[in-house]
Prior knowledge:
The structure is a homodimer of 200-residue chains. Chain A is α+β, with helices and mostly antiparallel strands. In chain A, 28% of the residues lie in helices and 20% in strands. Chain A is built from five helices and seven strands. Chain A has helices spanning 5-12, 27-38, 57-63, 102-122, 135-141, and strands at residues 49-54, 87-94, 126-130, 148-157, 163-167, 177-178, 184-188. The first copy, chain A, has a four-stranded antiparallel β-sheet, with helices on both faces. At the A-B interface, helix 1, helix 2, strand 1, helix 4 and strand 7 of A face helix 1, helix 2, strand 1, helix 4 and strand 7 of B.
Amino acid sequence: MGKNMIQDIIRKTRTVRKFQEEMKISQETLLGLIDLARLGGSARNCQPLCYMLITDSEQCEKIFPLLGWAGYLSDWPGPEPGERPVAYILCLLDTKRCKGPENEVYIDLGIASQNILLGAAERGIFGCRIGAFSKDAVGRSLALGNRYKPLLVLALGYPAEEVVLEKMEQDGDIRYWRDADSVHHVPKRQLSDIILEPGS
Amino acid sequence: MGKNMIQDIIRKTRTVRKFQEEMKISQETLLGLIDLARLGGSARNCQPLCYMLITDSEQCEKIFPLLGWAGYLSDWPGPEPGERPVAYILCLLDTKRCKGPENEVYIDLGIASQNILLGAAERGIFGCRIGAFSKDAVGRSLALGNRYKPLLVLALGYPAEEVVLEKMEQDGDIRYWRDADSVHHVPKRQLSDIILEPGS
Lengths: 200, 200
């Protein structure tokens, strides 16, 4: 492996919200991605996260309207039919397996979801982390018991939009935007702007 | 890039707590790792995390006793002189850049720290996420202002121990252990044990 493979794939792994809905993802691929989540580190080694796959089109249609899309694109209600996600991985907390404070669960969730999205990008699959949804409505829709608490939805598919990173001025505007050609631009803080010297 | 590069590097990226202290890590490499953290996704695109590098041996010696090591190895107080980390990346919250709830910050922290550790593993460098430390003591030691809140310490170095994953029985013991040859064993839940069917 070259020295910058990880950098290349991290750079490529951008949030995508429009998909080629006719291109499905196999169950085997999705299970492989969850296996990457499984292999991530976990605080106290609790491994309290579990995962539900939603791929059936009827179930996808039930989940879709429960999700909040792209807070800063206020005139865009989310992807239209034909460009919607083809699969969702619902990340849940198994409360029976959780021993530590809540913060640790969310660190685990960041690790796990990043593993999934990096492995997906390697296969040309992209996605979006969605935390803005009614946990109760999703729980009811999937007939979840009390033991499991929905934390995050990963919406996945083959991409139908281009996403580019933009340099952000120090403490500039953090809001992403779409240009006239529907290219999605994401401002990123620069390295010098996130390095702190002792005594700061 | 092959189809399983990400899986290989994720599998390789294990928590290591004993290092070859004579092998230092260059400032350039460390800044490159923080750049990987920078490139990770961030809720609301806030990018509220910042990073302080601790590499100077005097500073490392001041930080080391403030850290908690390997909760389950109760008779092991942490790495001895000669096998201690050669660098620390302190991950902090810049409270002036934080717009969302705390949970989102910790997801960002999982993503960022995973990017760092994956990029490190690609270079033969390993580390340990340490959340068990006195935030106040570390803040005082580094003369941090109120604006910045220490969240996590990444201890880094070239490894001086072997870590292997072990299959864990369903809801078996989550505690890692060291064997007589000082090999570190980490039980991992199996895939079938973390996949949930609707109606669970």
